[in-house]
Amino acid sequence: MKYRIGQGFDIHQLIEDRDLILGGVKIEHSKGLLGHSDADALCHAIIDALFGALALGDIGQHFPDNDPQYYGCDSTDLLKKANYIVIKSGYKINNIDATIKAQQPRLAPFIQQIQHNLADILKLQTNQVSVKAKTMEHLDSIGDGRAIAVDAIVLLEEIELDMQFDVKNHQG
Ligand SMILES: [Zn+2]
To answer: How far is ligand 1, taken at its centre, from the CA of residue 58, in Å?
Structure first.
């Protein structure tokens, strides 16, 4: 199969005394996301989309949240590992499209930096990584500022056998 599509979703509680990290970028805010790892919901949703595209299960099966080695871990490391699994499976990312749902803080000033950072981590061009942000119009838990959620979609493309694709370069 030449192309595979995958979808991912993640949500974390937004609480005090935690850093807010999205796509590996630390965002100035009075609150941050609660989780076993750094709770980077954007990285987690993309990871789930990558595994989903290849029907390889989900993030919890590959990086269990009761495993001490992932406590407080940098989710960009997990994203690199997931991308390496994709490449070892014979695929590469064609493009990513993600939507962050957050009432607060305003994410527009950070979007470019997040896209650059993800492109850098995944060795993609920035035009292959789309990140959008939306508020929830003050509706539900996200609109009340109690959570941030992310939807992500990825398209994977089969790596051509005759192509000199540098797998080592992606090793996590
Ligand atoms: Zn998560």
So the answer is: 11
